[in-house]
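Lab notebook, bench 4. Still working through the backlog of constructs that have no structural model yet. Next entry is a single chain of 347 residues. Request: give me the structure tokens for it.
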Amino acid sequence: MSTPNRADDGGLGVTAPENRPTPVPALIDDVTRTAIHYRRNHFPYPDVDVSAWSLPVTGAVEHSLDLTLADLEALPARAATVLLECAGHRRTDFSPPISGVQWSLGALSQAQWAGISLASVLELAGVRPEAVEVVFHGADAGPFGELPGTHTFSRSIPIAKALHADTLLVTSMNGERLPREHGAPVRALVPGWYAMDSVKWITRIDVVTEPFRGPFQELDYRFQAVDDPGIGTRIDEMRIHALFASIADGDHVPAGAIELSGIAWSGVGVASVEVRVGAGDWEPAELVKSGPYERVLWTVTADLPSGQQTIAVRSTDALGRTQPVAPVWNRRGYVNNSVQRISVLAT
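Model written out:
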């Protein structure tokens, strides 16, 4: 099976469909400005008539619903600051190369999101005991590899995640009405998980009694090792990751003591960040933590001798898992959370 139809320009700018990264230094800010929040699209932007939009909720429920935007916004409001990361972030690090959007750095951003808890809607509908997943169907659609026909971007999440109070149906981004580019009028927000589950331009929600088998669920966004003859395993929780933000590969910097800073994140929380110069010891960084779904800021003072220097940063999550030394190769080039290394010239 070939990968879905994707046009890209190497992850360096606007693409058609539009895919563009956020400048890494901007991630130091508590909120990424909407205009530079990263964008990941599988197809051209859909045309959604907001004035006529409604949200059917069907399937394994006691009461099927068809909610207007006003109906949704009459439910109790909920907000959260959440970092979203594309599962293909840093795909360009894989060797041999892997097809797909050629993301380097920056396929992640942090925003303030507001809407209502999905659990509030499911409570109105009454989820039946035999339900196993909730499926979000998006308005964006197009071809998928060699499969015939047109396919909507649809994803499912387990019932337990759907009923978590922090899983949202979002109508607002950074204090303003959710823009078209990020899923208006309503998108899902699944905190702590890779962003493909935060489906945009939602047109329908189905509660199902069997695992969903749409192509973007069963054939894509799966971790398939090179020796796996099957379709691999589902990707969900974001893996531990840290990046430099104050310095970049190829920079010229002053030799001697220098303060370095960056970000770290994971789906379960960040326990520690360490930085190493050359083959020296790993030195612990100071952390500034915030909300449970936000990136952590880190800073450390490093001593750079004169000359070309390699600097590395790694992080460990709240469950004791540390970033791998090298990318863990898989057929689709997903979830690369390997240790970041940069080379700088200190003079």
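Notes after review: The chain has two domains: 24-234, 241-346. The chain is about 5% helix and 40% strand. Flag for follow-up if needed.
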